[in-house]
Design brief:
Rossmann fold; six-stranded parallel beta sheet; 6 helices; 6 strands
């Protein structure tokens, strides 16, 4: 049974999203919610995030909304290093602090500031070993940072009972069309 799920995907800038009012954000959030709800109904208890800006912070917002209906759902923010938000602008830091304050568990995996890419690799390995599956917002047609954890997850799944779920461009298109239909019906 899948009780602990890692959710990750593109960073906001990889999608060309530079503010919270971008019209793509509600679509990504809807696609995430549509994937998370059936998993919740099948026993999902924890979502594990590293807290990076983009898919992961939007996921935290989706989870906070879902907790109204599914109070048993918890989320953890496990950063690859200390002070990952140090160079972010003030509004992004404020949003991040709010997400951290609502999390059920928060830690830094290496307990040190950024040193090198090995911290991301170790975070990815830790996430895979301490979860039952992963949901990645990623499309093969648009390379980006999620390709690294996706490749590692595929290797891990070859030797372990591990589920990999993707939200790709087609899934986002479906979510966009459903949102458009709702607007027409209003």
């Amino acid at each position: 049974m899948l009780t602990r799920l890692v959710i990750t995907g593109y960073k906001a800038h990889e999608l060309g999203i530079f503010d919270d009012h971008h019209p793509g954000i509600p679509i990504i959030k809807k696609a995430l919610q549509d994937r998370i709800i059936p998993l919740l109904e099948d026993g999902l208890e924890w979502v594990i995030l590293s807290g990076q800006l983009g898919v992961e912070t939007w996921t935290a917002e989706v989870i906070m909304d879902l907790q109204m209906e599914y109070p048993e759902l918890k989320y953890a923010i496990m950063t690859p290093f200390l002070d990952q938000e140090k160079n972010w602008n003030e509004s992004k830091q404020e949003k991040y602090e709010m997400i951290l304050s609502q999390a059920d568990f928060v830690t830094s995996l290496t307990k040190r500031p950024y040193e090198a890419p090995w911290q991301f690799i170790e975070k990815n390995k830790f996430f895979l070993k301490n979860s039952d599956g992963i949901l990645i917002v990623y499309d093969e047609e648009k390379e980006g940072s999620p390709k690294y954890i996706k490749k590692l997850a595929e290797q891990y799944a070859n030797n372990h009972d591990y589920e990999i779920f993707l939200i790709n461009a087609y899934d986002l298109q479906i979510a966009a069309e459903e949102e458009q239909m709702k607007k027409w019906e209003e």
